[in-house]
Design brief:
Elements: H1 8-14, E1 21-25, E2 28-29, E3 35-36, E4 43-47, H2 52-65
């Protein structure tokens, strides 16, 4: 199964258990295209995994009910 990250934001709003996440300081992209971290930066929500089957199951159920 392959995750479709484009739907992560909406899926998390519908059911946060479909994409466990955590708050982390926002990363900094340096000029040499590497990431650095500063714990004083603003927080972002980072999701590292998605339950693709649950997300698509919900989507297809809602599409079928919309007919």
């Amino acid at each position: 199964n392959k995750e479709i990250w484009d739907v992560a934001n909406i899926a998390w709003l519908i059911d946060p258990s479909w994409g466990p996440s955590e708050l982390r300081p926002s990363p900094i992209l340096s000029d040499n295209k590497t990431w650095s971290h500063d714990p004083r930066r603003h927080q972002i929500r980072q999701c590292r995994d998605l339950n693709r089957d649950a997300i698509f199951g919900d989507l297809f159920t809602k599409l079928a009910e919309a007919k």
